[in-house]
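Example 3.2
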Amino acid sequence: MLLAIDAGNTNVVFGVYDGDKQRHQWRAATRLDRTSDEYAALLTQWLALADLTPGSIQSVVICSVVPRLLRDLRRLSEKVFKSRPMVVGEEGVRLGIEVRYRSDEIGADRLADAIAAHATYKGPLIVIDFGTATTFNVVDDKGNYVGGAIAPGVNLTLEALHAATAKLPRIAVEEPKRAIELDTVSAMNSGIYWGYIGLIEGLTARIAAEFGGATKMKVVATGGLAPLFAHGTKVVDHVDPDLTLRGLVEIFRRNTTSAKGK
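Structure, written as tokens:
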């Protein structure tokens, strides 16, 4: 089996795959003080609950936007699973697409999203990932990554509102029934929710106009808040919560299949 690891600024997501089929998924909060031994203890427990052992994992593929965390996950793979991990973005890992974004700056998760979205839905596409940052990723009809945009994430914006003001509380966003509200918490929720709906609708329209072409661009949303915001707009065609992990599986397949064919 293959262990796919998506290490982000907020969560680390682990997916166990048997071929293309996901068997199990777990997530842990991203903590830079957590060691490779602590991740090993967590994963060993999770595997045991799934009636698996570390020996059930033959290979590991990782994408990480947190360099320090990548070091510990690499140690985890080598120590617990006796596997040298495939790390997306490192030299020698082939994507099978053209990337027009600066290669030393593009997040590996954005590439995984793009590859999985095109493999599933074809192109051209706009992939929106609701993470610590909200990213908009543009994929052409051939699957090439042609660029994108980055905005502050929803929870990051909520935290900034609270941290930078004396009286605005921490809140959790939910879908409001209206835009005009009569109390502070509801007004904050309205501003964040409908503000991000405006961002989604406005930026996808601008991207599509700039991209051009006769074919309508499909919009795919992923990330924990994708279902919430997709419900408030008609521009999102598909919500796909496991897009990044599936992209990792596809990247692993492209590299191992081509290697066997040589």
